Structure formats: structure tokens, C-alpha cells
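quick one, 127 residues, struct below
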Amino acid sequence: MRRKHFYNFRSHKSLKFKIKIIVIGIIAAAGVYILFPHFFRNTYIVTIASKQVKKQNSSTYYLIYTQMENGETRTFKNTNSLLELKFNSEDIYGGLRINRKYEISAYGFRIPLLSSYENIVKTRAIK
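---
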């Protein structure tokens, strides 16, 4: 004799479909969240004002404080990126000198509420 259950998953085909749609939606949203910042790239001419190492949980990232040519200040982060095949953030950080001018290529957004910064990809010293 079969017991009647309040919730019988096998008999609800529409519920299975809804769960599949939700899982696919979550995977798609995660993919967009990861890939979206890589489509927004900028190049800046900046003077390095300060540098700082930040440790958060088990990861380390570098903050670079700069001044633009128009006097505006901007903060960048410098972290390794698997999607960019960038694994030299320590070398970039060590090579930047305070009060020197650089051309910086970066991607991403600056979202203060989320403490999100543009990530530096390349730097080139300007004389």
C-alpha cells in the first residue's frame, strides 16, 4: 500500500520544470556577474599617489590610489585574474612608484557601496 505524502515530487511535472528553470537562471546570473565587468575597459593617464595592501579572509589584493590629469582622484585594485590570464599582480604592484606618471589599462566598475574597484591589467611608465 502506498502512502499519501503531502509533497510527491514525481507527480508534479510542472514543479520539476520550474526548478530546472530556476537553476538555469541562477547559473546564467552567476555567469553574467563574473563576465560582465570584463566588457568595460578603459585606459587612464595617472600619477600614483599611494599604494596599500589589503588582506581579506585568505586573499590579498592591492589598492592603488591615483590622481588623474584633471585633478580627480581614482582608486584601482590590482588582483590576479584567471579570465584575463593575469598572474603578475605582485610584480605590477612592486613596479609602481609613488609620484610617477603611468598609463593604466583597467577593466570593471567603481561601485563604492560594494567596495568594487576597476582592476588593473597593464601599466606603462610615462616620462
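Helices lie at 13-35, 89-95.
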